[in-house]
Amino acid sequence: MTDTYKSELAFVNRFTRALPADKIAENYCRQVHGAAYSRAIPARVNNPQILTLNESLAIELGLAALLDDRQALAQVLGGNSLLAGMDPYAMAYGGHQFGNWAGQLGDGRAINLGELTDLQNKHWTLQLKGAGPTPYSRHADGRAVLRSSLREYLCSEAMFNLGVPTTRALSLVTTGDRVVRDMFYDGNPQAELGAIVCRVSPSFIRFGNFELPASRGDNDLLRNLLNFVIEADWEDLAIKLKSSVSDKATTDVYLEWFQRVCRLTQTMVVQWMRVGFVHGVMNTDNMSTLGLTIDYGPYGWVDDYNPDWTPNTTDAANRRYRFGNQAAIARWNLYQLANAIYPVVQDAETLQQILNNLPSEYEMEFADMMRLKLGFTHTSSCPVSLIDDLKKLLCLHATDMTLFFRLLSGFVPEDSDCHLPELLRPAFYDIHEMSLETMRSYQDWETRYRDGLLQDSCDQQQRKLLMNSINPAFVPRNYLAQQAIDAAEAGDMSIFSFLLNTLEKPYQDPSAANAHLAAKRPQWAANKAGCSMLSCSS
Ligand code: AMP
Ligand code: MG
After folding, report:
1. pTM of the entire structure?
2. CA nearest neighbour of 202 among 257, 265, 125
3. Which of 55, 119, 148, 159 is most buried per CB count within 10 Å?
4. What is the DSSP letter of 41?
């Protein structure tokens, strides 16, 4: 029996109100047809304790009144209680995993509690990840462990503060229950601490929500879903859709929606590339139709720049989701979305045209982003070849990506004694081994960079400020997250809290107190589990 607390919050629950529900009420694993979701109540946990609460987000969402009673709040965020007006459900979706159609997936351990509107009338869905089994759990337990939940909380908030589109994290709660996981997939399962993250997003709808009804030929559900996302997410398109008097006008709205999803998705990837984030599991069920980074699993942050790096051990052989392949995979995923909506849109030519334009649109946006990272204010002062050659240069000698760009703002083109290899020394993982050939490549690139900056004629101080506002000093490096996890599992949240606080202002210059969090990855962490690669076990 779940308690229900009174609340002043206005839950609007558009998804469950507008779309068809699974007709079966019992919570057991099954294929769900003809429905966008199944109602599912979070399973009780033994002893929910709030480890971290995002108070500023809570206030933004209009939850301030709940902050006074932490015990009651822990019960809600742990899934033992509901607030009046919540209408919990698990979404039905499918997906392509690692390039193969996987059939029905769905929210196997995430339960959406409800959708509310904040003081600005923005819509937010609250979702508990790790809240227990649903009809989509496929024989797994519906739970999550502390290490992966802490990583999700840390990274989604870091991404938000870095200015990367993402879902948010409201709370991290331990459940008081143990969860058994085989972390290394080596036949050594361990009982770990169970945890639940309350995620918050304007929408949790994925490409896979469309793929599932499409795969079953359920065009009614497909159309309902498409109309729903347009009405829920895009006011201007919703007005057009409502007033559309012809099939052609309706199709045009659908195409405009798809074009927007493409734009948002590509922008998200450009932003990942800017900060050195590798999602690690870009399956179509992990792609948001709002271009938000979603489902933080075995993600990672590039330390030494390497476009071939993937943090996901499951992906180690093919490296499908490697750092440098993310834009291509985003396009592949958008192709799947186009295929899924085609039965309703019925305009293959325009869909194809939109897809065909993606590579050039991405390249343009990527180049604009890189120009800013390099400190250029005029496009003409930075030819694309300078960016392309930088990508090659960074691969010649193991170089910390974050430190490279941060240090680069100290380059003074007017000073002929200022040279990159010396300036960038703290970013190199192996300075003593730089070959003569690499040195020459650096000199060549430096000359062209210097000429470009002189031509750009931006004031040095101003350029430094600009560069430091786009090139972070702090990112949640893999080994830092692991240190926070090791301490948290031993009951000490101070390392996590300090890291989280520092990552609130990722563009600020390091101080004596937090300089260690801006430093290069130490050698001991180069190949340590959790600090370099991760499994999907979570
Ligand atoms: P992910 O790789 O985390 O995006 O998950 C892929 C699919 O597996 C989704 O449908 C998840 O809901 C489901 N899933 C992952 N872990 C669990 C779990 N512990 N219990 C139930 N379903 C899960
Ligand atoms: Mg997922």
Report:
1. 0.97
2. 125
3. 159
4. P
